[in-house]
Amino acid sequence: MKHLFFGGVHPKGYKELSREAAIVPLHPSVVSVAMSQHIGAPCQPLVKVGDRVTVGQKIGDGQGLCVPVHASVSGTVTAIEARPHPGGNLQTAIVIESDGRGTLCPTVKPRDPEAVAAMSAEDLIAVIREAGITGMGGAGFPTSVKLSSGLGKVDTVIVNGAECEPYITSDDRLMRETPERVVGGLRVVLQILQPKRAAIGIEQNKPEAIAAISAVLGSGIDLLPLHVRYPQGAEKQLIQTVRVLVGVVLERAVECVHLLGRCGDEYVAVRAFLDLGKQVAGGGKVERQGDVRVNRLVVLCDPVQGLGHGGRRKDGQLCGICRTRVLSCVVAALGCTAARQHCQ
């Protein structure tokens, strides 16, 4: 077999804990929206205590390397204060008490597909920026900035469906349940960047996801079943794998992490044009394993309560961040929370 990338290991995946559980929505009574959701400058609050907000309303924004954050529930702002953050420090957060109604902001409206197809790259990037979309990798780099930097430079776009990290099944469930939205998000990216080729790499331990994506893929995009090996989903390793499988030298392949982003990136990208973007977070080793859908770019006071226990580690066992407090923030790049049965 051709050498795909050097090294690699085969840790036990534990994906059976949650991969067959359908994604369910999570409806918290209180949310805490961190103003620091990604690498770069934090947002400044645009609301004050006592304000009424609606789902999708912009409640924070800033200058420079910054994208907006939005309310995930309709309700009342009860506090703007420093709260625990996954980075181990305190960051400003807007606390909202939900009214349980889920009232949408009037600005949250679907866009006509024909109108989207006629939009320029700059206009598409502006929509993605206003939707507050960031990459779902470690740094959560603002997607609009990455796309802007890739205009006229990207030869190949790769969507990362490897999901090689133990426990995590959120991308698997996304590809199985909403493949048309994952592919739709990729086509928006292709419309912006106009690359020569595009590929979606999915590890072979996700046969249902491979079949679901294949059924809606259409022409012009390669679907690449990948041998299972960690860290297949890392940037350099996946580029090397695709280079060998496609049989080309990717001289400028996927210079940005987003362009080599998790399939969840493409899912939220297309939702920027359809409705309020949402993300999916998985949980393993808890009372009720499964994936939950939470509103994009928000922080829940304790999202793992919906899975039965407080979490211990964010984004997996091998490359995740150990959460020092059960109630620390969960930011936009969350992919999984692995929790012990008995947190001490």
Describe the structure in your own words.
With 344 residues, this protein is α/β, with parallel strands linked by helices. It has eight helices and 16 strands.
Q: Helical content, roughly? A: 10-25%
Quaternary organisation of the protein chains: single chain
Unreliable spans: 249-260, 282-288, 295-315
State which percent range the strand residues make up.
Answer: 15-25%
Summarize the biggest pleated sheet.
6 strands, mixed
Number of strands: 16
Helix-strand makeup class: alpha/beta
Rg computed from alpha carbons, rounded to a whole number of angstroms: 19 Å
Taken from the alpha-carbon principal axes, the silhouette is globular
Enumerate how many helices there are, as a single number.
Answer: 8
Mean pLDDT: 77
The strands making up the biggest β-sheet line up spatially as 1-13-12-16-14-15
The helix/strand series, from N terminus to C terminus, equals: EEEEEEEEHHHEHHEHEHHEEEEE
Q: Distance N terminus to C terminus? A: 47 Å
